[in-house]
Structure formats: C-alpha cells, structure tokens
C-alpha cells in the first residue's frame, strides 16, 4: 500500500503516486466546499503536506486510506473557509468602524495631532522591525493579519505555547523600545 510506504519508508515515489491517484478526488471534494479553484488548490497542497507529515498516524483498521485523506481534506477546507470568513468579518468590521468614525475624527484632528500620530505609527513600525524575526512574524500574523494564536501555531507549525511566548516577548520588547523613545523625547 502506498500510504504504508510513505509512512514507513518516507518513499517519495510512493507519495507522488498517491498524489497522482487521489489529487483529483481530493481537489473535487475541497472545491465542493470552497467553490473557488485557487483556494481549493491551496487546501489541496496543505492536505498532502499533512498526509506526508502524518502518514504514520493512519490506521488501516479504522478505514481506507482514501477515506482518511478525504477526511483531512474536508477538515482543511472547513478550517480554511472558517479562517477566510473570520478575516472577511474582521476586515468588514474595521472598514465599517473606519467609515463611521473617519469623518467625525477628521473634523477634530488638527495638523499637530496628525503629525504626532504619524510619528507614533512610525515609532511602532520601527520597534516592530527591530524584533527578532520569530517575534516579528508572530505579532504581524496576530495583529496585522488577524489570526488567532492557535491559527498562527498551525500556520507556522510551532507549538501554541511557543507562539504565545513570542508574542508576549515581542510586545514587551516593543513597549520597552517605545518607552525609551518617549523618555528620550521628554
């Protein structure tokens, strides 16, 4: 069986043959959930990466290999769909908030406040850029991409505790950097 060869021998040719045999049905399954070919292709790739990484977890006694792979594909598609909906809702909420408050705020903000806001944004960007890449990436994914810490852990293939620690250490380092800047300017 191909999946056994992938699990036990890490046989790339068996994996390629498995992909050739099942990618069509996996793609069709994922596409039926997402209704978008580009997204379905992304999930198809995620699915087979998971199959490669977790082939040893497959148990023949619980069902056929194709059923196991399709279960992974469906779960990935539903996860992808949920993340996409969550991002769209967050973007819509931010857009609504900005739309409602930008006009009123624009009337109240004078040139000095605008300058201070730009300088603060610049200082925050610079503090973020000074972080080690692991902390920078975790904070960017959390605060700019809107991913949860669990989603970041899954996306980066790191433990949840590691992601939480990176975000916390990064935010503390940014706070210290911004406080030093504030103290220097005072």
Summarize the structure.
The protein has helices spanning 2-9, 12-34, 37-54, 65-108, 111-129, 133-144, 149-156, 160-185. It has 186 residues and is mainly alpha-helical. Helix 3 crosses helix 4, helix 5 (111-129) crosses helix 8 (160-185) and helix 7 (149-156) packs across helix 8 (160-185).
Mean pLDDT: 82
User: What is the succession of H and E elements?
Assistant: HHHHHHHH
The end-to-end distance, rounded to whole angstroms, is 70 Å
- Overall tally of domains: 2
CATH class categorisation of the largest domain: Mainly Alpha
Shape: elongated
CATH superfamily grouping of the largest domain:
RNA polymerase sigma factor, region 2, helix turn helix motif
Number of helices, counting only DSSP H or I runs of 4 residues or more: 8
Q: Beta-strand percentage? A: under 5%
Which class best fits the helix and strand makeup?
mainly alpha
Q: Runs with pLDDT <50, length 5+?
A: none
The main sheet comes to:
none
The helix content, as a percent range, equals: over 70%
**Spatial extent as radius of gyration:** 23 Å
